[in-house]
Amino acid sequence: MKTNRKFFALLIVVSLALAAFWLIRSSSPAEARSTKIRRMILLNFKAEATPAEIQKVLKESSEHIATLKGVRNVLAGAQTHQQSQFKYGISMDFDDEAALKAYRTNEEHRKLHNAYIHLIEGSQIIDIRDE
After folding, report:
1. Coil, helix or strand for 40?
2. How far apart are CA 88 and CA 80, in angstroms?
3. Rounded to two decimals, what is the model's pTM?
């Protein structure tokens, strides 16, 4: 009889422990999906673009982009992979879709883009959503 009581007491303790564990796990906040988006702009400049012009485009573009709300980790420079068809790139992280939209519609960004488009021979844009 004592063995049965000990068994039931142990069963109750284990059940309470499992219930408490389940309650704690279910009340903790669920992992939210990331809203971050990484944009990479791959570029080739026309043959007539001088090294100074190329550096100016990359510098001014990255400096401007870095001032926009919701933009992080701006990088601009030459491609390091020798076999890539693009020789330069700009990379940036957006906090969310709203920050990306604000970047695309920003008037100063459009002006800067239009000021340098005549130097660009080809480009490709890649947006990657953090999952």
Report:
1. strand
2. 9
3. 0.72
